[in-house]
């Protein structure tokens, strides 16, 4: 399932980025010719917000978010997995609160119009609960995969597993 979701995230992200690029390019060309398309910039901003959440979800699934693990790396694998699992549940609690509050904000902004586009501002604010739910699913998936993995694979919730080349180089440095 994560491989399938990853492909969907990649496709949606690529399409959003292509549409944003096209909209900004067309807006620049039309402005140059004296016929600005005000709505295209608004739509590009709206799509960019969604792209950020799709990208954050993909980065979470791939375990490539920036993190500070200087002290945690000193612990053995079992302790690191427990710490990351506790952090995962803390993040999930925060994301669920964010989703709930984002939903309330969306309901408040349903009648508000987004810029000159004529679209409801709710399409902007609903990205927060949707993105929070997607991130929650990614964290849960990573947590389950971490606990299903064995001691030999040493898969963690947030930390990307080292490649075999990195492990070999690290082992050579320790032995040499």
Structural description of this entry:
The relative contact order is 0.13. The chain is mainly alpha-helical. The two termini are 42 Å apart. The chain has a two-stranded antiparallel sheet. The chain has helices at residues 2-32, 38-62, 77-108, 122-125, 127-148, 164-175, and strands at 113-114, 119-120. α1 (2-32) packs antiparallel against α2 and α2 (38-62) packs parallel to α5. It is built from six helices and two strands; from the N terminus they run αααββααα. A hairpin with a 4-residue loop joins β1 and β2. 72% of the residues lie in helices and 2% in strands. Its main location: membrane.
Number of domains: 1
Which H/E pattern describes the elements? HHHEEHHH
- Distance separating the two termini: 42 Å
How many beta-strand runs? 2
Give the biggest sheet.
2 strands, antiparallel
* Structural class category: mainly alpha
Rounded radius of gyration (Å): 21 Å
Instruction: Enumerate the spans where pLDDT stays under 50 for 5 or more consecutive residues.
Output: 164-176
Helix content class: over 70%
Average pLDDT: 87
- The share of residues in extended strands comes to under 5%
What would you call the shape?
A: elongated
Q: How many helix segments?
A: 6
Subunit structure: The complex comprises the extracytoplasmic solute receptor protein and the two transmembrane proteins.
Transmembrane segments: 12-33, 39-60, 81-100, 120-145
GO biological process, one term: C4-dicarboxylate transport
Keywords: Cell inner membrane, Cell membrane, Membrane, Transmembrane, Transmembrane helix, Transport
